[in-house]
Automatic annotation (TrEMBL):
It is found in: Cell membrane. PANTHER family: FMN_FAD EXPORTER YEEO-RELATED, MULTIDRUG RESISTANCE PROTEIN NORM-RELATED. This is Probable multidrug resistance protein NorM. Belongs to the multi antimicrobial extrusion (MATE) (TC 2.A.66.1) family. Keywords: Antiport, Cell membrane, Ion transport, Membrane, Transmembrane, Transmembrane helix, Transport. CDD domains: MATE_NorM_like. It holds the Pfam family MatE. NCBIfam families: matE (TIGR00797). Its main location: membrane. Multidrug efflux pump. It is a multi-pass membrane protein. The chain crosses the membrane at residues 37-64, 84-103, 123-144, 156-178, 184-205, 247-266, 272-290, 310-334, 346-364, 376-397, 403-424.
Amino acid sequence: MKFILLLALPAVAENFFQTLLGFVDTLFVSRIGLAEVSAVGVTNAILAIYFAVFMAIGVAVNVYVANNLGSERIERARHIAQQAIVLSVVVGVTFGVVTLFFAEPLLRLMGVENDVLEAGSTYFKIVGIPSIVMALMFVLSSILRGAGDTKSPMKVSIVINVVNIVLDYMLIFGFWIIPELGLVGAALATVIARLVGTLLLMNYIRKTEVIAFRKDFWRPDLEHQLELVNLGSPAAIERLVMRAGQIVYFGFIVVLGTNTFAAHQIAGNLEVFSYMLAYGFATAATILVGRNIGAGDHETAKEYARLSTFMAMGFMSLFGVVLFFFGGWAGSLFTDDPQVIKDIDVALKIAAVFQPFLAVVLVLTGGFQGANNTKFPMYLTTIGMWVIRTGAVYVLAIQMQMGIAGVWIAIGLDIVFKAIVLWIQFSRGRWIVVESEPQKPCHPKTKHEDVRCINNY
């Protein structure tokens, strides 16, 4: 339990500050207007697809670094870490080009109104073209976490938030000689904060002895690139399936009206604070499971996954109580529209009920990934998102005219389904994928032995 908390709490703090960044952005943007809130929400729904790919590379490198350090294959861990950075640069540049040429068509697919489209297109281009920065942030943080360092990403998140909050205020509303830039200012603040974060993360890795950079490891290596793609692909597909389904049911919500979508977006920005708790324990589970799987100790890996899940359930249940009783009040910070506030309150009361199940889903998914099993969560997410969530949103919110209540009940049904299936699979011991037996550690004492270790890991 001590090791879990040592790894989880800094990760919780990191996620808290990352979540705070989105919260502050939405809070400031809400002062401009609800159309702008919807523009940011729709844009972020598409950017979430980008994040899915970046996060998948991060998942793969996190697991491989943890596995190889667990089996004391230090050089292999270093090499894969640097290859992940190379891959993230290529993918980030690719998404930047896509944004440059297809920002508006992608937003049109969401079925947004014209006033939202214009604002969303501008915001999308500013934050999406420099996608390389987002990609590097995901991967660099994952490398540090895979090496057992959850404190450095936490420190970077704090700095990013300070930079973002200050720049948000200055650029959105104007300050001294800086003109009022509105939504453009919010986008610029986000990009600058991410750039600062990337530089800081790179500096932390450069100073890390375990994952110290080597010049000869920057050369693209097809074997390691394929390893990252093979492990990360299911995680990417899982996220893409989830985001694609999200785009579909977001379209259903847009049909309900701009104000309803804005209420959904604001509720999501408030509920996401609960995710910071689960992701913190999921990070601990991935690291500890990965290390023990690499060392061949499956029983200890399972115990860490189980304890991490139970601890997350406890913390998130407490947060659920906060959501239930104070959701409406928190919503009033974003808007004074009484109907929007009421919708936010309804959404968060429903979300509160499902918090323990959400803990199971997120933490066990992290445990499965640490055990090299990224395919099962992918299959489960596909069924949950497209058969249960999207279908239920259409039936409950549109056909039965339950509005935002129908949307959040549908989300809850999906969460419960995935939690039950994941726990059954975990309890039966069908969650670990071992591709090969742990290799003997290699401890080079000479330059010649160092080369042998590198070539034979």
